[in-house]
# Entry
Amino acid sequence: MTNAWTDIKNTDLVVVMGGNAAEAHPCGFKWVTEAKANRGAKLIVVDPRYTRTASVSDFYAPIRPGSDISFLMGVIRWCMENDKVQWEYVRNYTNAAFLVKEGFGWSDGLFTGYDEEKRDYDKESWDYQIGEDGYARIDPTLQDPRCVWNLLKAHVEAYTPEFVENICGTPKDKFLQICEMIGECSAPDRVMTSMYALGWTQHSKGAQNIRGMAMLQLILGNIGMRGGGMNALRGHSNIQGLTDLGLMSNLIPGYLNIPTEKEPDWQTYISARGFKPLRPNQTSYWQNYPKFMVSFMKAMWGDAATAENDWAYHYLPKLDVPTYDVLRMFELMKHGQINLYFCQGFNPLLSFPNRAKLTEALSRLKLLVVMDPLETETAHFWENHGIHNDVDSAAIQTEVLELPTTCFAEDEGALVNSGRWLQWHWAGGTPPGEARHDTWIMANIFLRLRKLYQDEGGVFPDPILNLTWDYADPSEPTPEELAREMNGRALKTVYDAKDPSTVLVEAGKQVKNFTQLQDDGSTMCGCWIYSGCWNEDGNNMARRDNSDPGDAGMFLNWSFAWPVNRRILYNRASADMQGKPWDPDRKLIEWTGEKWEGYDVPDIGVTSKPDEVMPFIMNQEGASRLFTRGMMRDGPFPTHMEPFESPLKNVFNDKMRGNPVSRVFADDAAQFATSDEFPFVATSYRLTEHFHYWTKHNKVNASLQPEFFVEISEELAAEKGIAKGGRVRVWGKRGEVWAKAVVTKRIKPMICDGKTVHVVGIPLHWGFKGAAKKGWGPNSLTPFVGDANVETPEFKAFLVNIEPSTEEPVA
Amino acid sequence: MSGTAPQPTTAAANPPVQPMEAGFGTRDLVRVSATADLPAPDRQLTKLAKLIDVSKCIGCKACQSACVEWNDTTPEIGENVGVYENPHDLTPDMFTLMRFSEWENPATNELEWLIRKDGCMHCEDPGCLKACPAPGAIVQYSNGIVDFIHDNCIGCGYCVTGCPFDIPRISKTDHKSYKCTLCSDRVAVGQGPACAKACPTKAITFGTKDDMLALADDRIEDLKSRGYDNAGVYDPEGVGGTHVIYVLHHADKPGIYSDLPENPRISPIVEGWKGVTKTAGMAAMGVAAAGALLMGLFSRGNKVEAEEEVAAERLVRDREDI
Amino acid sequence: MNIDLSRRSFLRLAGAGVAATSLGAMGFGEAEAAEAAHVRAFKLTTTTETRNTCPYCSVACGIIMYSEGDVKAGETAEIMHIEGDADHPTNRGTLCPKGAALKDFVKAPTRLTRPRYRAAGATEFQDITWDQALDKIARAMKDDRDANLVQTNEDGVAVNRWTTTGFLAASATTNETAWLTYKAVRSTGIVGFDNQARV
# Structure
């Protein structure tokens, strides 16, 4: 989230599209009902199903799964055509005026530079024209046909209301009514918020769905505003934290990158991250990359990381592919190329697509290690549960270790919420039996591995032997020790660069925040964006002062938010070019003539003048991007793409299937279904009574929603002879499931490109472990393909067939 | 909204853990089942109410979950029968239930998903209490809470017949009748009911009845501004008003909310019992009037025989004939 | 002292709940003889409170856990109730149907209580000690890494890439667990490293 849960109360219009906040985040959604009750705010829901969020909405419209980009480009087109644009914001705070290279263009659904063989684009032309002064060329009048604004106008021209109705199945009058409601929020004193979640991410073009709305929010001037923003409602309690901390194939904490093998040395790596400003006087904060990176290397390897050895750069792995993400790992596993696999609090057998493939892959491991507070299907993948897990145990040679961990109630530490608040919590219960903290387990695995290398030697032991491990009890590092390590400290006394007689931080002391980090090895810091969380003031994540000056919803003294306790990102953009709030009633920060101050921590240098330094300081341009240059693999603007499994051909290009640059493994390509065999569009989702696959283990939630079901329209039920509460079989190209049928008016057939499109809704909370009745997840059916940029699987749009079934599951 | 409605005098606070005396008890009883001549309490507690704003309800079932956890009940893990209601009905282990109805509004042609939290309405004029033949099994306090005292319950099921909202459920295990207590144990230490505390969107609120009615007015104003011309409060007069009240977007049609009664009143049968002499009524139910006899009687079994039920109905008919 | 607030503002929603201010109106404030009576005894009396946050979604609602026994005092503590924290700015004491039933997650019959091992081809788990389990893991890692670490690529560039072992990290563990996990996993050269954010 750019903003915070509590800030949603400040909005005038909530758009829930690509999510279902009332069901998935009920207590966060309360800020929507508060905005409605106290400000008269309106709620729009756009979803293939009439959800529980829709049940309290002011306006609902249906949409075909996987067609969101068309809808959003349609709204942008409507706003541009009807002058619903926050012009001062767009001219100054976005890259609308930037001129793009002559070579860039779009036709037949594809941008310039497509290479079908490589399934990739040559993105050379997707960039700005650079002038002789080294800066990007701009046309502040927005007249130049090559400026971003005019290219965008041309790009969205196709997305007329009729086009939207045809592709999305959204009736034109409903679409136009939504445009009107959204368009009102282009006024500087009207603000809209976007709340979305997996309904946008779990597509082969998920990142472009989100881009679409982000662009719209920029055009309306709603980014950085109280009550505005792009609010990704993260799924799990610390998924934000684990992402921040870089527990991904290609990341280093704080959104730094693991090098690729094209960056063989430190100099190559670091010089590619110079990030010089593209416009005069701009901040381009990523110029500090070397400080964060060197401090990270010092946190990892301490004295073994020196200027002479390029901070132990050779210890880091160098990637040969963009990522070894989960999909790639299971692909490799299936082909016998993975021997040992760890699942720490993760149940991939129900979380990733094509369960049959997952089972096959896990069966080829030598050893699977599962750490979890609960029994998981993954740990028990080799157990036969009749039709619910029909495996031949004896044939599976994988050894499995199931290790009991503590849960939240028994451990201490911080979780990062969707609004980036790091909230400390305390243990209140005794762990059951022999369950141990994850920190104890990880420490003991590491210490034993290190001892083997110490005793036996082995291949390249240096990064293991030299890893910093200076904890009081090496086998159980405390949460405090680890938090302090993430915050960072001075290894040598650090002096002010402008005044070397002033000490910034003494050797051995915690740094105040990341502004004190250095690139000369004098500081260490595990995760720069968290710096400030536990400094010499103590544990700021444990702060519990719930006062809220100005009733602004910021709560600056409750816990700690990254970065530097800022609650709304890009908040400089809440004020105009003179530094005055666009809406005085929604003041966040303002320019006093000398500095920035207000209810939030300014997202700009406190003395940076408002008419000189533009608000988007993390971008080289100083401006936000309507045109993303070459930063996304599938295009600098979002363009309509069909799901890999769709009842429709892409209307721009009937040869194009799915996202033209998504990575597809050969076996999986052969398993994509077509609509002649599988005529119905399926989509997966969560129900409010359950949390993923966890709450089926507890009796209360199991009683509230006990059994796996699918939802279909009355029309499809009639067509197929399916009775309400009857048993059905749902099958696709990769598997089959049996479920109860919920026949509902909340799903209605849509007409798209002249075809009737029926939607089958498949919730995902059942498996073969726990208190609830045994069932399946939608992943028995879904295709093994991910988003082109981040490899998030396409769970939200795929093809199935359905029939009544009298067959009783044998279990 | 302008904030015209007074804020309720209440705001959420965490439960106490220090020992605390109960804020009300037997001295505050205003009605006790099958007991005449109850002395009038020496004080009148402020009337309380739970407000359920159906227009803010997202049907998440947090109320059900919190209810189970607070009251330490164990609802059965059932099956899906093609609807979202689970359990499928109120049970002795599920005192509250979200009921879902899909209603196509003929005026707009739009679908509305009407979700109503069902449970005891805590009637000012409680039919269950009036029907109950077991002395002290059902009580009403002067703050409006109607509570079942299980030690005194004989499991006859008359409360079910007497309830215009079909709320109480008899346990097959211990043959006692169960329903929402309005979390009398929480209210007694200054806390709201568990469902109201949990409710994510504050569709359920709790406070004095006056405050709840004022809050309801504010909500109705908001709903009317959004085109719900018939928004209104449900506080039915037929049972003397209730201590659980609803805000409905379509208050002119309570029946569309999973058969919420249009005009609930105590069953004529029960009114009949009330109307005839106490002795006759008790005799018709096969229950001798004298308290001393009750224990012996109850030990025989908890069921009222069908013939006794018929006899009671006849008695009512006879009375109506007069 | 984690139950203490550094400073408390009285949070409220456009709605309600009962507060101390209203107790008088409901019959409180007078000293009364304990009336055994009808009303069930308040079950949280004399329990220990601990502040925590809900481990499910990313709203991160504040919760208070009520236990018999106090872990901070070195006692065995049994959690007997969990309720929303009314002082928390986001949830204001509310909880969803999952959060309201958190106690049942802590006490789920399928909570794991001891390490278990499944041998190749076996149909059941068997018990194993922590020592045996950890030694087995370390041995398997060492052997696999020594056999399969890619030290250099075809161009002779040092790539220190271990692709035959993978690690999926959790989504509800603390930052502190995550950081320790990061250090341990990265130091080995594992590149098949991912977390729930991928989904």
